[in-house]
Amino acid sequence: MSVRLSSSGELRRREFLGLCASVAAGSVLGACASVLVRQVPVANGRVELPLVQYPELSQAGAALQILPEGQTQPLIVIVDAAGKHSVISSECTHKGCTVEVQGERIVCPCHGSTYDRKGDVLKGPAQRSLRRYPSRLTSEGVLIIEVAS
User: Fold this and answer.
1) Which domain holds residue 52?
2) DSSP category for residue 131
3) pLDDT by residue (tens digit) across 104-124?
4) Which member of 1, 50, 90, 145 has the lowest number of beta carbons within 10 Å of its beta carbon?
5) Strand locations in 11-141 (E)
6) In what order do the strands lie in the sheet with 46-50?
7) Residues 54-101: pLDDT tens digits?
8) Residue 21 pLDDT > 90, yes or no?
């Protein structure tokens, strides 16, 4: 976007407002991209994630949000430093808000509860850890997550 200055070198009101709108739209779109949740099918109470289709799950330190069909709250698939996978709920145990992965921490934007990457509470008001889901990696490179209650 080009900005024209008036003859006195000042930014015109219309250009200023347009610039502000562009910055705001870019911020919103950037935030949306960071919370991308991938929908995944469920068969027999399980989600199967072939690592070839989810290459980010082959990287130590990675985190991916998935939404199994039929569920309303995403799950977070975490890869630890050793490359081991774990799966936790994204539902804060305090009031049910959706938590966000922020580096080495998982944070609830509603009331500030903070969890480690295993889902254990580091700072309240939450009192309980995030729910964990059993998972295992097959020799064929498929991560199987048990989502049935």
Assistant:
1) 37-146
2) P
3) 999 999 999 999 999 999 999
4) 1
5) 37-40, 46-50, 63-68, 75-79, 85-89, 100-102, 105-107, 114-116, 121-123, 132-133, 135-137
6) 46-50, 142-146, 135-137
7) 998 989 999 999 999 999 999 999 999 899 999 999 999 998 899 999
8) no
Assess whether 122 and 57 both reside in one domain.
Answer: yes
Do 84 and 16 have their domain in common?
no
Q: Tokens 């992965």, residue?
A: 101
Same domain flag for 45 and 110: yes
Q: What are phi and psi of 55, to 5 degrees?
A: -60, -25
| Number of folded domains that form the chain | 2
Q: Are residues 10 and 44 in the same domain?
A: no
Please provide the size of the chain in residues.
149
What per-residue confidence (pLDDT) applies to 29?
Answer: 38
User: Phi-psi bin for 66: left (phi > 0), alpha (psi -120 to 50), beta?
Assistant: beta
